[in-house]
Write a sequence for this structure.
């Protein structure tokens, strides 16, 4: 029962993190790769920063921002009287930020694979930028986008360092699989720890298998052209 | 002169290259001609609106599409120009039919002058419609790209080297299609090319570009012999692309009889049946001029023609002759002097059978 609860909570947090990330990652990739907006270079670095930072640093920065005296946390507290820190929402935000670079970078690669000439040609046929995005860019990049989403999801499942700082490790509320394993190991409860490890490994294998399959298909697709 | 179809002054700067070109195109088919890197495609993209110039203006039939002073830029999807790319740029996730219908569906009903059925039959695509565009031949791809662009009933058709990635025999077929597009729908075209032969076959006027600057804008026959062209054009290999009708195709001698203009030509055998139209290519340097018919010779074709223009260039000369259609012949200056050719006089063209190349790829 305990295992199921932890698994469900982990999936919930990872899912919410992924749902938050998808529109941002797709939009940002489009701005950087297709629109090539001014400042793309800086945007790219900012988007990838959580990948290069220790997750603990991300968690600490989030804690400062979301804490009761932080700029965002203070605002939320005074407006709605809610506190985000040490809730599953904080865990989802931490997982979102840490998993963002993996998702965004994979999506960027898939969008770079869509020939600009096809988008230009769609424009010349009377399609506006939004239509081009939804009828040309997305359909041609969707396998890579899905692969990026899965990669982000699998990273969100395994998030530990940022989560423990900003959300703690509260059983039933913020304790995800990695946090539960850590706490069980510390308590010397090896049986439960191992059970959770098996669940972790299974989730990772399934997601990665799906990810690899999608990526292979998308490469086949672009190589036929 | 009527109102120009396209009028522009475009300045576009890149590191190490500046396009600075001003011209007014008349209706009909206009070629933008130049060596690679001369700025042809950049200019076409500026007219299409795919690229925004740094400075200048672009108008279509008096209507302003771009102006740097008024900070005006009509996006490409609002210009109603068809654009055919060198690599055809077909959408790989759609079949042939969906590709053709993509722009047609986006064309407001009141502006639809050409139906998809019309373009499908013009480009003979009916048996390809459900095919994936991935496994089409180069010629088929370009036919679909042309059909797709035309299905939007464009006010102007922009063609960026549509034949450059095709084999010779496919080129003949596409040239024939392009000619029929113009005669069927009357759509004005701007045709970018680095091949003088294609320009000669298709265009009425040509703008010659060199390192981003215009060299000349004139009728093709005059622009072709402009001194600025001699370094980018090899006149001896200039091909005359001529429309021909198969008259008889008797297998016995391995020869085909063709009608080109008012002349009959003998060419190597083709699988095309009598009555069918084909494109033939005759290289300007492969034609011999003679003021009388030699009594016995191996060449099968002796055609009486009238000299229309004579252009002396360096130590070569281009002779424009009329056999019902115009044919360009390249000879040396010495031959020109020896023969004493004069405009208006008749002369015989002597052409070997093998020099009449039928471009009959059944694509």
């Amino acid at each position: 029962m305990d295992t199921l609860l932890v698994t469900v909570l982990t999936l919930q947090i990872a899912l919410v993190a992924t749902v938050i990330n998808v529109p941002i990652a797709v939009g940002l990739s489009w701005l950087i790769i297709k629109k090539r907006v001014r400042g793309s270079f800086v945007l790219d670095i900012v988007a990838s920063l959580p990948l290069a930072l220790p997750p603990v640093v991300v968690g600490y920065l989030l804690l400062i921002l979301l804490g009761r005296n932080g700029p965002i946390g203070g605002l939320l507290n005074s407006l709605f009287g809610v506190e985000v820190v040490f809730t599953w929402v904080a865990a989802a935000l931490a997982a979102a930020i840490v998993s963002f670079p993996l998702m965004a970078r994979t999506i960027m690669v898939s969008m770079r694979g869509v020939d600009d000439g096809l988008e230009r040609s769609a424009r010349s046929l009377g399609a506006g930028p939004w239509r081009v995005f939804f009828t040309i860019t997305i359909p041609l990049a969707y396998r890579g986008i899905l692969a990026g989403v899965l990669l982000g999801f699998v990273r969100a499942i395994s998030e530990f360092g940022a989560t423990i700082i900003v959300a703690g490790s509260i059983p039933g509320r913020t304790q995800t699989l990695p946090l539960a394993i850590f706490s069980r190991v510390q308590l010397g409860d090896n049986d439960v720890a191992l059970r959770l490890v098996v669940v972790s490994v299974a989730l990772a294998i399934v997601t990665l298998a799906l990810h690899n399959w999608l990526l292979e298909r998308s490469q086949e697709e672009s190589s036929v052209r | 002169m009527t109102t120009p179809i396209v009028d522009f002054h475009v300045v576009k700067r890149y590191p190490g290259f500046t396009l600075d070109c001003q011209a007014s195109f008349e209706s009909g088919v206009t070629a933008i001609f130049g060596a690679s890197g001369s700025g042809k495609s950049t200019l076409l993209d500026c007219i299409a609106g795919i690229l925004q110039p740094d400075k200048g203006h672009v108008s279509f039939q008096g209507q302003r599409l771009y102006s740097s002073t008024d900070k005006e830029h009509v996006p490409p999807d609002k210009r109603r120009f068809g654009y055919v790319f060198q690599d055809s740029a077909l959408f790989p996730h759609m079949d042939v039919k969906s590709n053709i219908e993509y722009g047609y569906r986006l064309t407001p009903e009141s502006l639809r002058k050409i139906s998809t059925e019309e373009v499908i039959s013009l480009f003979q695509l009916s048996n390809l419609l459900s095919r994936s565009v991935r496994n089409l031949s180069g010629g088929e791809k370009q036919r679909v790209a042309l059909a797709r662009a035309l299905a939007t009933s464009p006010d102007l058709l922009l063609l960026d080297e549509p034949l450059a990635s095709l084999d010779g025999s496919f080129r003949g077929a596409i040239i024939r299609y392009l000619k029929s597009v113009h005669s069927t729908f009357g759509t004005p075209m701007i045709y970018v090319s680095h091949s003088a032969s294609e320009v000669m076959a298709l265009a009425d006027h040509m703008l010659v570009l060199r390192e981003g600057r215009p060299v000349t804008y004139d009728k093709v026959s005059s622009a072709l012999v402009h001194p600025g062209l001699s370094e980018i054009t090899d006149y001896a290999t200039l091909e005359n692309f001529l429309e021909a009708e198969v008259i008889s195709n008797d297998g016995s001698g391995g020869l085909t009889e063709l009608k080109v203009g008012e002349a009959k030509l003998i060419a190597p055998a083709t699988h095309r049946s009598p009555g069918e139209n084909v494109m033939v290519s005759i290289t300007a340097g492969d034609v011999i001029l003679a003021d009388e018919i030699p009594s016995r010779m191996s060449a099968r074709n002796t055609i009486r023609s009238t000299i229309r223009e004579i252009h002396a260039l360096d130590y070569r000369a281009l002779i424009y002759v009329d056999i019902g259609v115009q044919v360009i012949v390249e000879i040396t200056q010495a031959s020109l002097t020896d023969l004493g050719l004069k405009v208006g006089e008749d002369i015989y063209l002597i052409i070997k059978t093998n020099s009449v190349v039928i471009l009959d790829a059944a694509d």
